[in-house]
Design goal:
542 residues, alpha/beta, 16 helices, 4-stranded antiparallel β-sheet, elongated, 5-stranded parallel β-sheet, single chain
Length: 542
């Protein structure tokens, strides 16, 4: 058994989560956590709401509110959506009402400050005279200085590169939309270039043990071809975690600095809730613990560069063994856009469709290595051909034939090589080292497709073939169906537990999934009782 800490990138509580959000870090982290638990590992899936982000007061101004109620409103909606999709964390911190988050951020900041790992520099900064405020990140909009795509003031969503302080081209204040002036400001900085060699050594070690996706490797190659940027970690602002130093009143710590400590804080809250207040420390300081971060590509700099370097500077906590990125998921061919209303909101959608059906489709079509597209037609096709019209048709046919011809008991049969092949494909696809729920979903879809194609041959064998061959073929179908119920659990946990329960497969009460630890013999030995039918779980989309 290995201990894992699995994280998903902290969402900004400035709106609900749409399908583009769900298709990436949240579903991916949940699927991995479920698979690891099902295969016997110790898993802590944690995250937090990025409630100190400057996007929160910006959104509050847009809806005529203030930051705290806005963070609560959308934080509640995000948690509700994750629960509806069966993607909720083991612990999800709400920092505005949980002092542990702030305590951890300030604690580790002070460790770095006192060790001399941080510097103070006078840096250029945008300032809006009309609004009488300095502009950072969400407060300024312009063009990326590297790729010229539209960007806010810190990280470009398109290329993922951090903008130099006041480096954004054609900047505009997002409150008044006037061009700001450029002045200077004293800020605390993390000198990233000092950690170049140690980062390169870390990447070589991590990538020797796990497959980091090509876009992230290319991003790192490009970033390290130039001098690494000195990264500001403080701002002059009133909303956020205060810099805990005399003389720095009115300055806050950047949320991009705070994030890694937020993961540790969430782990601490989880282990405390489980009765072990110091358990988080044992996990995070043990080199054998595997920390897996799930992010969108636009968070590559923080999770794959800045945060590992901060951990190296801190010197005691364990670095991530894997950083899993995803690309953008488009809607009907165009980018999800909250401002244009071009989005399908997760909470609304999951009240109308089956959560497992959506999870399976997002796994099958998710943007793992390239941008992909969600369309209602393709989702309906997945439900009708793979799930309702495939998986359920197969299930109904097998159970009906067992009821008619064998008294709802599994007949004698031979070993089923397709079962071992499926288990091997799913284990390879869902392992943290080369994680791909898309490959897992495709493997399940292939098994369902072949099985439903074989039903015609099964009917012919029933009508005119030797009874022994028919019985063995039907037993093989039952065994393979049981194997799908087990291996599909991380992707479709509700359906898996539903069918496993009806087939009499043991379901672990803690994970609510059938156990992956395969018995020496068949999952459904000869003579196993099965129901004559099961209720419909999936339904065709109208």
């Amino acid at each position: 058994m290995t201990s894992y800490v699995v994280t998903s990138a902290p969402p900004n509580p400035n709106g609900d989560l749409h399908l583009g959000h769900l298709s990436g870090p949240f579903l991916g982290a949940d699927v991995l956590a479920r698979h690891l638990r099902q295969t016997g590992h110790d898993v802590h899936y944690v995250g937090y709401s990025d409630e100190h982000s400057c996007y929160v007061p910006r959104r509050a101004a847009e809806i005529g509110s203030t930051a705290y109620p806005t963070a609560k409103l959308f934080g509640d909606r995000m948690e509700e959506t994750l629960s509806l999709g069966a993607m909720h964390h083991d612990w999800f911190t709400r920092p505005l009402t949980d002092d542990t988050h702030t305590a951890f951020v300030q604690r580790f900041f002070l460790e770095l400050w006192e060790s001399g790992a941080l510097e103070v520099q006078e840096l250029p900064v945008f300032h809006c005279a009309d609004c009488s405020r300095y502009l950072y990140e969400a407060e300024v909009r312009g063009e990326c200085q590297f790729c010229a795509e539209p960007s806010d003031g810190v990280y470009c969503e398109a290329c993922g590169l951090p903008q130099d302080p006041a480096g954004l081209a054609a900047p505009k204040c997002t409150a008044c939309w006037k061009t700001p002036e450029t002045t200077t400001l004293r800020r605390i900085v993390f000198p990233l270039e000092n950690y170049r060699e140690r980062l390169e050594s870390y990447y070589a070690s991590a990538q020797a043990k796990a497959e980091w996706r090509p876009r992230l490797r290319e991003y790192l190659d490009g970033l390290f071809a130039r001098e690494l940027p000195a990264t500001p970690i403080s701002r002059e602002a009133s909303y956020g975690v205060p810099v805990p130093l005399p003389g720095w009143e009115g300055h806050i710590l950047d949320t991009w600095f705070s994030g890694i400590w937020g993961y540790a804080a969430a782990t601490a809250r989880l282990t405390e809730a489980n009765g072990d207040a110091e358990g988080w420390s044992a996990l995070w300081t043990d080199p054998a613990t595997r920390i897996v971060n799930f992010i969108g590509f636009d968070c590559s700099f923080s999770h794959a560069v800045l945060w590992p370097a901060l951990l190296l500077a801190q010197g005691e906590l364990t670095l991530p063994s894997q950083v899993v990125i995803n690309e953008f998921y488009r809607l009907e061919g165009d980018k999800f856009s909250t401002s244009r209303g071009h989005a399908i909101w997760g909470g609304e959608f999951l009240r109308r469709v089956n959560a497992d059906a959506l999870r399976f489709h997002l796994c099958l079509t998710g943007p793992e290595r390239e941008q992909n597209n969600f369309s209602m037609k393709e989702f309906a096709d997945t439900v009708s051909t793979v799930l309702a019209g495939g998986l359920e048709r197969w299930t109904d046919t097998v159970l009906d034939l067992l009821a008619q011809d064998f008294g709802s008991r599994v007949p004698e049969g031979a070993a089923v090589p397709e079962r071992a092949q499926l288990e091997g494909e799913i284990a390879a696809a869902l392992g943290a080292e080369s994680f791909s729920p898309q490959r897992a979903a495709a493997a399940i879809a292939t098994v369902v497709d072949r099985a439903t194609d074989d039903l015609r041959e099964l009917a012919l064998l029933r009508a005119s073939g030797p009874r022994e061959r028919y019985a063995a073929r039907l037993a093989a179908h039952a065994e393979l169906l049981a194997a799908v119920a087990v291996t599909a659990a991380p992707l479709m946990p509700g359906w898996s537990a539903f069918l496993a329960g009806h087939l009499g497969l043991p379901v672990d009460q803690a994970t609510r999934m059938p156990s992956w630890s395969a018995p020496a013999g068949p999952l459904l030995p000869a003579g196993s009782p099965v129901p004559a039918a099961v209720p419909l779980f999936f339904h065709e989309l109208s």
